[in-house]
User: Which sequence fits this backbone?
């Protein structure tokens, strides 16, 4: 292009383009350029702020990203638990609708059971007795109102009035009706005691009810057993009881012993301060000496004659009976003596025989 | 050129922290409309142009401190604006997944529907013809046809040789003439 294109002379070669106006066909909103510089400045400031606010100005908790994975997993697990349909966990119908009410009721119950939490207390069983207390108060108020009218009744009069009237009507019916039936005199006065006695008798007769049992025919045989026991007890009473002493023997014995021992000693003490008693002059020493002699002689005889008959010579009765043949004694006893005569014979002899000696005698008599 | 002096004064004030805002205000007052129209002719839609012009000046604010005075200030700003327009149009094509030709039709529809276009039928035909050019060729045509920019300055803006720009412009004009002739 030979022409100076910088001076738009080049348009002369392009007739179609040259016919088009070179003015700017584009327009802008009214006042756009007046506000454009302000918009640009605002954008620049905004961009500066955006760039000056570095990501470092935001801080994170320590180890946030290290724990982030675990936190996300926990959150997922919680979401799964909350989503009951996925976990298969169910609650009763209307559970959540009633949950609020249930919690409120539970709080009320806990507060009632634990009054310390509210700081307010009531006496024990207060609410249990509250109803009756109110009724009593109402009755008192009614009574006080009645006093104002000048007329009074006993407490609970009107509460018991209905039952009293019905009881009275029943009694009146019984007393007025002529049934033709009569009871013995004082029947009703004794009726209570009779009933109690009958109950006691029934309880005794019905022993099974008490859980205690006796052998068959126990009570039938009881009377005979008691009588037999009495006979046996009388028969085996102590032999000492069969011996007697003179009247007032033991009273005199006590006085004699005291006079010979304690009282005599007091006298001797007054006479002699040495209080020496001569043993050879006492009666006890003499008896003891005689007994020792008899024992020595008896022991010698015993060791010389070791025969069963020798034991019969230890007493007077044995010595007397030893000379009589055994057959004669047996015949005599069979004809003239029973069990009771033996005891009487011994007692009449006024002999002091011990139980062992008596058994030995009887044993000898029964043996040939 | 008087503008160069002024550009030198703007740049001087911008280097001082205290007069930086004042320098930027002078810059806006001098170049905001030129940058806007340069963008508007490329994207056609006013709102898109408004967004882009603000983006351009934000970049100017950020990078003006490092501006080397071996080139003119306004050609540097035109370069920024041109790059923003090409980036925007490329994103738009990728977003709509259309070819260059289809994007030309979309821009023509935008031009037809735009309420901020009061050109006559010939001007409308011319704009539709321009939209048929490739983007960089459109930049060359617009800068020469509307801004009456010299090839050296255009070379500074587009980083292309003056010869290549002349050839590109010649081809662009011939194509537009043919389109206008065909529609006549």
Assistant:
């Amino acid at each position: 292009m030979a022409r100076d294109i910088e001076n738009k002379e080049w348009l002369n070669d392009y007739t179609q383009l040259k016919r088009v106006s070179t003015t700017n066909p584009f327009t802008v909103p009214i006042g756009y350029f007046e506000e454009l510089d302000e918009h640009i400045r605002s954008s620049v400031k905004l961009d500066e702020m955006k760039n000056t606010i570095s990501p470092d100005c935001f801080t994170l908790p320590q180890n946030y990203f290290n724990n982030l994975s675990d936190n996300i997993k926990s959150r997922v697990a919680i979401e799964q638990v909350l989503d009951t349909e996925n976990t298969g966990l169910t609650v009763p119908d209307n559970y959540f609708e009633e949950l609020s009410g249930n919690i409120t009721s539970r709080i009320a119950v806990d507060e009632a059971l634990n009054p310390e939490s509210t700081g307010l207390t009531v006496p024990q069983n207060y609410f249990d007795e509250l109803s009756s207390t109110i009724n009593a108060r109402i009755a008192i108020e009614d009574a006080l109102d009645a006093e104002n009218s000048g007329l009074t009744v006993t407490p609970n009069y009107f509460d018991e009035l209905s039952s009293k009237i019905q009881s009275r009507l029943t009694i009146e019916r019984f007393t007025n009706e002529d049934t033709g039936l009569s009871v013995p005199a004082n029947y009703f006065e004794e009726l209570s005691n009779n009933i109690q006695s009958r109950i006691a008798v029934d309880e005794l007769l019905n022993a099974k009810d008490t859980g205690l049992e006796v052998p068959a025919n126990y009570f039938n045989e009881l009377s005979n057993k008691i009588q037999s026991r009495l006979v046996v007890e009388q028969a085996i009473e102590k032999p000492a009881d069969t011996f007697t002493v003179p009247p007032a023997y033991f009273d005199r014995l006590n006085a004699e012993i005291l006079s010979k021992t304690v009282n005599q000693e007091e006298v001797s003490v007054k006479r002699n301060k040495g209080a020496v008693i001569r043993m050879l002059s006492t009666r006890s020493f003499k008896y003891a000496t005689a007994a020792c002699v008899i024992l020595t002689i008896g022991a010698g005889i015993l060791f010389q004659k070791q025969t069963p008959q020798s034991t019969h010579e230890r007493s007077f009765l044995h010595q007397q009976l030893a000379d009589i043949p055994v057959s004669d004694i047996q015949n005599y006893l069979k004809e003239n003596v029973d069990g009771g005569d033996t005891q009487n014979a011994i007692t009449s002899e006024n002999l002091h025989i011990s139980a062992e000696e008596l058994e030995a005698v009887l044993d000898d008599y029964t043996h040939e | 050129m008087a503008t160069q002096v002024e550009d030198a004064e703007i740049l001087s004030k911008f280097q001082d922290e205290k007069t930086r805002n004042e320098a930027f205000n002078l810059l806006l007052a001098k170049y905001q409309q030129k940058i806007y129209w340069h963008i508007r002719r490329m994207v056609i839609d006013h709102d898109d142009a408004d967004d882009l012009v603000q983006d351009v000046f934000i970049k100017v604010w950020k990078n003006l401190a490092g501006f080397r005075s071996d080139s003119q200030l306004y050609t540097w700003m035109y370069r920024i604006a041109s790059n923003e327009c090409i980036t925007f149009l490329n994103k738009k094509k990728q977003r709509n997944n259309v070819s260059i030709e289809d994007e030309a039709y979309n821009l023509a529809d935008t031009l037809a529907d735009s309420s901020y276009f009061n050109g006559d039928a010939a001007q409308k035909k011319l704009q539709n013809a321009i939209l048929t050019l490739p983007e960089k060729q459109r930049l060359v045509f617009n800068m020469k046809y509307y801004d009456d920019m010299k090839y050296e300055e255009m070379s500074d803006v587009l980083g292309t040789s003056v010869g290549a720009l002349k050839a590109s412009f010649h081809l662009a004009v011939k194509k537009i003439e043919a389109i206008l002739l065909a529609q006549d």
About this structure: Confidence is low (pLDDT under 50) at residues 1-5 of chain A. The first helix of chain A runs from residue 15 to 18. The interface with chain B takes residues 1, 5-6, 8, 10, 14-17, 19-29, 32-33, 36-37, 39-41, 43-44, 47 of chain A (CB under 8 Å). The CA atoms of residues 196 and 214 of chain A lie 25 Å apart.
